[in-house]
Structures are given as structure tokens and as C-alpha cells.
Amino acid sequence: MQKSQFKIQIVLAVMGCAIGCTLLVFAITRFSAPGFYSRWSSLKDGMTEAEVRQVLGTPTQILTGPCIGAGGKPVTRWEYHRAVVGRFVDYYVDYDYIGPGGAPAVFRTERCCQDWDCPSWGPGRAKCR
Questions:
Q1: Between 3.30.1450, 3.60.60, 3.30.70, 2.60.480, what CATH number should domain 33-128 receive?
Q2: What is the pLDDT of residues 105-114, one digit of tens each?
Q3: What is the value of pTM for the model shown?
Q4: Cα dist. 128→26, 91, 115 in Å?
């Protein structure tokens, strides 16, 4: 075997391994666990913080919400930030103190998408649903 043929075979073997590993990673991430959106869809009004944490995991941020709730207290807002291909998606879960004994319970959920525009450094436009 000549040196040039051996080099070509090595390059092809490395490229084959890289493509195979990429496909393996894609298959594992695609088919292993339910995505965030499918878990988000299972949220219901009246869920407690513990139930939401079990379904969605730890929030990205915990803030005070944009409105006043029961008893004159500001609502609590949990934010989940996700990057999906082609856009950023922000998920908001608002809690009001309407649960048993004044415990926080979900009363509103929102999903807000921001498309990536060209150029990537330019301002995006937000679309809330």
C-alpha cells in the first residue's frame, strides 16, 4: 500500500467516526427524554411550586411578577429560558397566593418567542402566545 492511499484511508476513517458520533449524539438527545415543550404543555392552573419544579425543573430566574395578586401581594414569576433552533423561547409561570392556606399556586402561564433575525446582532421581534 502506498503512503498516499494509507493517508486517504485514515482521513476517511476519521471522517466516518465523526459522522457516526454526530448521528449517535443526535439520536440520543432526540429520542431519550421528553422535550421541554411537551412537559410545559402538561402544566395546569392550581399546581403548586413543588409540582411545577418536578415537571419543569429548576427555573432560570425567580422574580416578582408584573401584577398584584390576592391579598395585595405581588405575584411570583418563574422564568425558564430556552434556545430552540432559530429562536429564543421564554416560558413564564405566575403564582398567586390562592392555594390552601394562602400557598402559592399557578394561575397563569405564558410562552414568548423571539425570532433570530439577520443579522444576528440586530434587534429581534418578540411574539407572545
A1: 3.30.1450
A2: 888 888 888 7
A3: 0.62
A4: 29, 10, 11
